[in-house]
Amino acid sequence: MNERTKETLQIHDQKDRSSHLHQNPFESNTLGKLFEALAKAQLEMEVAKTDNVNPFFKSKYCDLAGIVRASRPYLAKSGLCVIQRVVCDDLGKTYLCTRLGHISGEWMESKMPVLPPKQDIQTIGSYITYLRRYTYAAMVGVVASGEDDDGEKVMDSHRSPVKESNNITASQLNTISQELVGMEEILDSILDGYKISKLSDLPHKAFDKVLVRIKDLKQAHEKNM
After folding, report:
1. Eight-class DSSP state of 53
2. Dmax (CA) of the chain
3. CB-based contacts of 213-218 (< 8 A; 24+ apart in sequence)
4. What pLDDT does 165 receive?
C-alpha cells in the first residue's frame, strides 16, 4: 500500500468518525425525503374525530385508534410508517420510543419516560396508551377537532395573577393512587384532562376535586355491578 492510498484511507476514516460523532441520536443524518413525504401526507390527513367521552371530565376526546385512522392511510401512501415500542436503558429506566420511518431509510424518533403512579400492569398499560396517543399525534402532525377545549377550561380555572406551580404532595399522590385501585382505566382521563404526563404533576388545587370525582365514579361503578 503506497503513501497516497494510506492518506486517502485516513481521510475517509476521519470523515466517518466525524459523521458518527455529530449524528443526532433522535434522527437520521439526512431527512429531506422524509420531510417531503410527510408534507404530502399531511396535505391529505383528516382531522381526527373527538367521538370518545372522558368519564372523569365528561368531555369528548379522540382516542389512539381515531388518530391512527385519520393518518395511517396517508402516511403509508407516502412511504411512511410509525413504530412505537417500550424499551429499557442500562439503568433500568423505561421509555416509550416513537419512530417515524421512511422507505428511504430516513427516520425521526421521540423518547418519553414511562412514569406511572403505580406499577401494576393495568395502570402501566393505561399510562402507555396515553403516551402513545400524544407522541404519535405530535410526531405525524395529526390534530383532533376541539382536542384542546377541555384542557383550556382546566387551565382557565387554575390561572391567577400570581404564578403557581405547586403540585400535589407525596401523601396526596398516595391517597389518589389508593382510590384508583380498581378504577385504573380512568387514569388516562385524569392525565388527559389536566394535560399532564404523570399523576404527581397534578396541581395541588385540583386534589379535592379529583378525589371527589374518583369516589363518585367508584360509587357509580359499584352500583352497576
Report:
1. E
2. 87
3. 213/56, 214/56, 214/176, 214/179, 214/180, 214/183, 214/186, 215/179, 217/55, 217/56, 217/183, 217/186, 218/179, 218/182, 218/183
4. 53
Exposure letters 75-84 (e unless 16+ CB within 10 A, then b): beebbbebeb
The domain segmentation of the chain, as residue ranges, is 3-224
Q: What is the DSSP letter of 144?
A: B
- Give the number of other Cβ atoms within 10 Å of residue 186's Cβ: 20
The residues facing 88 across adjacent strands are 94
Tell if the pTM clears 0.90, that is, is over it.
Answer: no
C-alpha–C-alpha distance, residues 160 and 182, integer Å: 35
Contact 150, 59 (CB under 8 A): yes
Local confidence band at 50 (pLDDT 50, 70, 90 cut-offs): confident
Q: Is residue 82 a contact partner of residue 136, using CB atoms and an 8 Å limit?
A: yes
d(C-alpha 141, C-alpha 145), whole Å: 13
Written as one letter, the residue type at 190 is I
List, as one string, the DSSP characters of 9-27: HHHHHHHHHHHHHT--TTB
- Look at residue 158 and tell me whether its pLDDT is greater than 60: no
C-alpha cell at 186: 380512568
Measure the CA–CA gap between 116 and 151, rounded to whole angstroms.
20
pLDDT above 80 (res 171): yes
Structure confidence at residue 15 (pLDDT):
52
